Amino acid sequence: MRSLNLKPLGKNDISFYLAIEKYFLPRIDEDLFFLWDLYKAVICGKNQLISAEVNLDYTEKNGIKVFRRHTGGGAVFADEGCFMFTFLTKNTNREEVFKKYLGFIQDALKKLGLDVVFSGRNDLLFQDKKFSGNAFMTSVHGSILHGTMMFDTSIEKMVASLTPDDSKLISKGISSVRQRVINLKDYLDFDIYGLMDYIYNDISTEEIYLSDSEIREIKELEKMYLTKEWLNYQNPPYTFKNKKRYPWGGIEVMIEVKKGKIKAISFNGDFFTNQELTELYQFFFNQEFTKESFEKILAEIQLSDYIVDASPEDIIDLVWR
User: Fold this and answer.
1) What was the pLDDT predicted at 12?
2) Which domain holds residue 247?
């Protein structure tokens, strides 16, 4: 298979590899394969609500970037102990694409003595545990199939990045995830780059490199994946809902969001108020649904004028933690 050798470019952000896919899919006349050497990140599916899938406080504090890809499916965590792969093809039959191209990965690993099997619609398993999750999309130009390969991924960081900020949940999550996923490091004589080279060479029959002009074009395409519009505004319309109890009472918040903007908000519960909350709601209307936006709004008003004894920190906790 024709393969794109990206080794000369070293590690890159997820957005760069997404841009490579976007660049080549309309241009290919035959299948193309390449590997991703990446920095740690969370990659959300195209249609996911990021704030519901990612522990944004944790990722921000730990320098883990969050990206949205152009394929569907769930959020995944990838770090330097993981790499990813892409197959581009003119074939748009989902079942055929998964079977054929994941079959290349499966066959390569079987040659190393790993009894790898398919499971469900998009996973590869070893010893009945998942080490590769994959996503797919089609367009008028063909299909993209890409996936992860867990070699020595940090399970702790994976769970913390994708779990609400609750130490008990995280602790239980690590144990649960360890029972369902597996790193390949302990079963191979390679380091991660050795495995990447092995898989690349096993699949590749012809290789190409990016020219300087292609890199410039890809870097331009990459900018789209880094915009707020792509990362946040792709969120589907939805109602955010959460309920907690504080010393001043129980409170439930419901927020309708469209294209990243607050279109309606309400607070309900057994708390006391000093005045009608309709005026409070106006401060939030049509503002961005981000933690930073909430912090700015709450810093500019006296929240306890509306909800007795409530603090801005309580509302931030209610919505964002």
Assistant:
1) 98
2) 238-320
